[in-house]
Amino acid sequence: MIIFIIKYLFLFMTGSLMGWGLEVVYRKYFGKARKWINPGFLSGPYLPLYGTGVCLLYIVSELNVHLGIKIIMFTIITTGIEYFTGLFFLKYYKTRLWDYTKLKFNIQGLIAPLYSVFWTILALVFYFVLYPYFYNKIEFLYGNLEFCLFIGMFYGVILVDVINSFNVVSRLKKFAELAEEKNVVINYEQLKIDIKDKFEELSDRVEEFETDFEKRLNQGMQSLKVKKSRPRFLLPFKGEYELMQRLHEQIEKRVSRKKK
């Protein structure tokens, strides 16, 4: 029983981490944001939705049934996880974690045929590429149970993250309920994009200010440096005022004179 639990804790952890990496790249190059945006509901580098999906896909992969049936099950499982997760946050927390409303034949903006196709393709990649790899890794895990310490640390971190993240969406829910407009829904991803855009705008302004400030400061420091490095009558080489630069200038002058 303990081995069984460790097996699926490992699958959930690995799937959550890999899914997070996949979503980060997707949002940067293909998503609405086209920025490096931390995806998902939690703050850390993991997506439980993918972890859950990997565990269920692993179970289906082990079934002794025809590949066609497995493909159908892959589609139902991945689309179902996406729909019910999105529906829970939408109905209870008034928060939309993703938005498919602009896609054709979408259902409540939570699922769409296009993404169901994507999930099915990813499930097939898992089945043909990752499933054998995971199988071997789990065999390794059985013989090296000390690795469970790392798994335990992962779940300790994710537990704290879950508590904090639910506190955040609870505040968003209160904001939505107190808004003058009825049926307000918070778009979670768009909120992240807006915050990042505002931060980058402010960062640009601060950078401009810092550049101007540094320019003036450097001018003042250079003036001070010149004064401090002024050559002295009795100790002409004690000061370090651009000594090497002056030596190079002398050499260049000599070379130019010889050429003439």
TrEMBL record:
Regions that span the bilayer: 6-26, 38-61, 67-90, 110-134, 140-163
Pfam families: ABC_trans_CmpB
Keywords (A to Z) from UniProt: Membrane, Transmembrane, Transmembrane helix
InterPro entries found in the cross-reference section: CmpB_TMEM229
Protein name: ABC transporter permease
Taxonomic lineage of the native organism: Bacteria, Bacillati, Bacillota, Clostridia, Eubacteriales
